[in-house]
Here is the input.
Amino acid sequence: MLIHVLKSKIHRVKVTQAELNYVGSITIDQDLMEAANLVAGEKVQVVNNNNGERFETYVIPGERGSGVICLNGAAARRVQVGDIIIILAYAIMDAQEAVNFKPAIVFPDENNRLV
Here is the structure.
């Protein structure tokens, strides 16, 4: 049996930009991407702590060390600059493998920087 397991989590980052007129995605500081084991183009779930919205999009790398968290395209309507979000990615693995799997979980500071 295969199950979906949490692979990556960036916990409580602040939205720094929302760009409606863009093709779509979430731009994430490359430092945060690497710490959370996320790759460009990877599907993620975004949870908005301010309004309860949950949606899916894909990752594009942002400037390293910038702290950028930008929702692009239609996703920009689901956030406001300053909202606190959680970014999640999942992997599919067999239940046996999942028992010992450890997700990459990142807790950035209030400026979306690694601590």
Remarks:
- The domain at 2-95 is CATH 2.40.40.20 (Barwin-like endoglucanases).
- Helices lie at 30-35, 95-100.
- The mean pLDDT is 97.
- The longest helix spans residues 30-35.
